[in-house]
Design goal:
288 residues; alpha/beta; seven-stranded mixed beta sheet; 9 helices; 7 strands; 27% helix
Length: 288
C-alpha cells in the first residue's frame, strides 16, 4: 500500500497517539474486508493454512553450521534493478504518502504516463501522512495523475482508470489490526489475490504486474507465489530485490499512518529486505 508495515504489539499504543486520524480509513477498510468477491474466495480456497512464524532469524531457524565455517550465514548478493522506462504507462496502486510515485516521476523525467492512487480519501491521506502534499505536488507538476479512494481489488470497476503497461503495488497491507495471526495472514492474502485478479483486467498487451512484499515473517506466511499460482493465466516472469535507494526521496510509510514521535523514519521499516515479483498474463492459447 502504500508503504505500510506489519501489525505489531505497539500498534495499539501507536493508534492512541495518532490524534485526530486515529481511526482514519478504518471503516472503509472493514467494509472492503466484508465485501470480498467470490473470485477472491475461490482463489484462496485450498491454500495451506498459515502457520505461526518460527522462532529464530527472519525467514526461519538457521541450521547448525549453515552458511559455512562458524555457522555464519552467507550474505546473498542482491539482484535489485530499475525496471521502469519512459514511455510506458504505469499505474501505482496503494500509495501512502505518494513518495514512491513522486520519485518515479523524477527518474523518468516526467509523470505524464504515471497514475498514482491511494485507497484512502484525499482528506484521510492528508491526516495520516503530513508529508504527502509535497509529493503530490511533485507528481502533478510533472504532469502525472493522482487519484484517491481507489480500491486495489476493484481497479477494473474504477471509471477513471484505463489499461496500463505496468501496474505496481508496493508493500500491500490491509492494516486492520487483526491480532489473530492466521486471520491477519488470510486478510492480506485476500487483499493480494483480489488485487491480482483485478489488475489482470486492466493490463494492456504484454503488460506486467509488479508486487513488492517484505521478506521475513509474517510476510513469508502470506505465500505470495502459491497465491499467484492459484490465479488462472497468471504467470511469474521474474523477481528481484527491492532497493529503496533507487528511488530518491522515497520514504516508506505504514498503512496506519505516520507520527513524528513514534513512527520509523526513512526506510527503516524495510531494512530487512523486500522482493518485487513480476507477473504476466498468458493467453488462452498458451494454456490450451
Amino acid at each position: 500500500l502504500i508503504s505500510p508495515g506489519a501489525i505489531c504489539p505497539a500498534h495499539v499504543c501507536f493508534c492512541r497517539n495518532m490524534g485526530k486520524h486515529k481511526n482514519a480509513g478504518t471503516k472503509a477498510q472493514n467494509k472492503w474486508l466484508k465485501s470480498l468477491d467470490k473470485h477472491t474466495a475461490k482463489a484462496l480456497k485450498g491454500l495451506p493454512r498459515p502457520q505461526p512464524a518460527q522462532k529464530g532469524p527472519v525467514g526461519g531457524v538457521q541450521k547448525p553450521g549453515a552458511g559455512g565455517p562458524a555457522g555464519k550465514a552467507k550474505k546473498k548478493k542482491s539482484n535489485a534493478m530499475m525496471p521502469y522506462k519512459a514511455g510506458k504507462s504505469i499505474l501505482a496502486v496503494g500509495e501512502g504518502n505518494f513518495s514512491w510515485a513522486a520519485a518515479l516521476c523524477g527518474i523518468l523525467g516526467s509523470g505524464s504516463t504515471i497514475t498514482a492512487t491511494a485507497f484512502d480519501s484525499e482528506e484521510t491521506v492528508r491526516e495520516k501522512y503530513p508529508d504527502a502534499q509535497e509529493f503530490i505536488d511533485t507528481i502533478l507538476a510533472s504532469n502525472g495523475t493522482v487519484l484517491y479512494s481507489v480500491d486495489a481489488t476493484q481497479l477494473h470497476a474504477h471509471r477513471e482508470l484505463a489499461t496500463y503497461d505496468t501496474i505496481v503495488f508496493n508493500f500491500p497491507h490491509c492494516g486492520l489490526g487483526i491480532k489473530d495471526v492466521a486471520r491477519n495472514v488470510l486478510a492480506n492474502q485476500a487483499l493480494i489475490t483480489g488485487f491480482l485478479l483485478s489488475a489482470m483486467r486492466c493490463l494492456g498487451p504484454n503488460g506486467d504486474i509488479h508486487l513488492t512484499v517484505k521478506t521475513g515473517e509474517p510476510y513469508d506466511s502470506w505465500k505470495v507465489l502459491p497465491l499467484a499460482r492459484a490465479v488462472p493465466r497468471l504467470r511469474l516472469k521474474t523477481a528481484f530485490d527491492f532497493n529503496p535507494a533507487f528511488y530518491k526521496g522515497y520514504t516508506h510509510r505504514r498503512t496506519i499512518g505516520f507520527d513524528e514521535d513514534i513512527s520509523s523514519h526513512g526506510n527503516e521499516d524495510i531494512s530487512r529486505g523486500a522482493r518485487t515479483y513480476v507477473f504476466g498474463v498468458s493467453s488462452a492459447a498458451d494454456d490450451a
